[in-house]
C-alpha cells in the first residue's frame, strides 16, 4: 500500500512537471494531451478515495478551466479544506501571481455556487482563506438575518438561540467592517446587534427591523 501510494504521488508530480515544461515551451498540443491524461487518472483516484493526489494534481497543474470538474469532485466530497491547503502549499512553492490566485479563487467559488450553494460554512472558509473582508462581512450579516427570521418563524419567547446567533453574527460583521474602516457599515451592524439584544431582553415587543429612530421612540 505504501508503495502504491508513493507510485501515485510520483505519477502526479510527473504530470505536473510535464505540464509545466510544455507550458513554458508554448507546446499547446502537449498541454492538451497531458490535461486529457490527467483527466483519465481522476476516476482511479476517486475510486480509491485518494483526494490528496487529486487536490495536488489540480493545484499543481493550475489549469482550472480544463480540470474544473476536479474542483467539483473535491467540493462534493467535503475536501474543500484539503484543496485550499494544497493550493497554499503550491502557491508558496511557486510564488503564485496575483492573477493565478484570482483565477483559483473564482474557480473555487464558481464550483461552490454550483455544487454546494447553501453551504455557508464553506463560503466562509474560502472568504477567510483569501482574506475577502467585504464578502465575509456580507455573509455574516446574511447569516444574522437568517437567524432572526428563523426566530420569527416559530416566535417562542423562551427560545433565544437563534437571536443569540444573530447578535453574534452582527457583532462579528461589525468587527470585520471596522477592520477595513467601513464606518457606516460598522455602525449599522452594531445598531442591528443592539436591536437583537433588545428583542432578547424584551420579547413581548417587536424590536427587529425597526430603524434606530423608531427604536429610541419605543424605548422612551
Automatic annotation (TrEMBL):
Domain (Spatacsin C-terminal) ranges: 10-219
Residues in the signal sequence: none
Superkingdom, taxonomy of origin: Eukaryota
Coiled-coil parts of chain: none
Any one annotated GO CC term: cytoplasm
One Pfam family here: Spatacsin_C
InterPro entries: Spatacsin, Spatacsin_C_dom
Protein name: Uncharacterized protein LOC110748030
Amino acid at each position: 500500500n505504501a508503495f502504491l501510494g508513493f507510485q501515485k504521488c510520483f505519477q502526479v508530480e510527473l504530470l505536473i512537471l510535464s505540464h509545466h515544461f510544455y507550458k513554458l515551451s508554448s507546446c499547446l498540443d502537449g498541454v492538451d494531451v497531458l490535461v486529457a491524461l490527467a483527466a483519465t487518472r481522476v476516476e482511479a483516484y476517486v475510486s480509491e478515495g485518494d483526494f490528496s493526489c487529486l487536490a495536488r494534481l489540480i493545484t499543481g497543474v493550475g489549469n482550472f478551466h480544463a480540470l474544473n470538474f476536479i474542483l467539483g469532485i473535491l467540493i462534493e466530497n467535503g475536501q474543500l479544506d484539503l484543496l485550499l491547503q494544497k493550493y497554499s502549499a503550491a502557491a508558496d512553492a511557486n510564488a503564485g501571481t496575483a492573477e493565478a490566485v484570482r483565477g483559483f479563487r473564482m474557480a473555487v467559488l464558481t464550483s461552490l455556487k454550483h455544487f454546494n450553494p447553501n453551504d455557508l460554512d464553506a463560503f466562509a472558509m474560502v472568504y477567510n482563506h483569501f482574506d475577502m473582508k467585504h464578502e465575509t462581512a456580507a455573509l455574516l450579516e446574511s447569516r444574522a438575518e437568517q437567524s432572526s427570521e428563523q426566530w420569527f418563524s416559530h416566535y417562542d419567547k423562551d427560545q433565544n438561540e437563534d437571536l443569540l446567533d444573530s447578535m453574534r453574527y452582527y457583532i462579528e460583521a461589525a468587527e470585520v467592517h471596522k477592520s477595513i474602516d467601513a464606518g457606516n457599515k460598522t455602525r449599522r451592524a452594531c445598531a442591528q446587534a443592539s436591536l437583537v439584544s433588545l428583542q432578547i431582553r424584551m420579547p413581548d415587543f417587536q424590536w427587529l427591523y425597526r430603524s434606530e429612530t423608531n427604536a429610541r421612540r419605543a424605548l422612551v
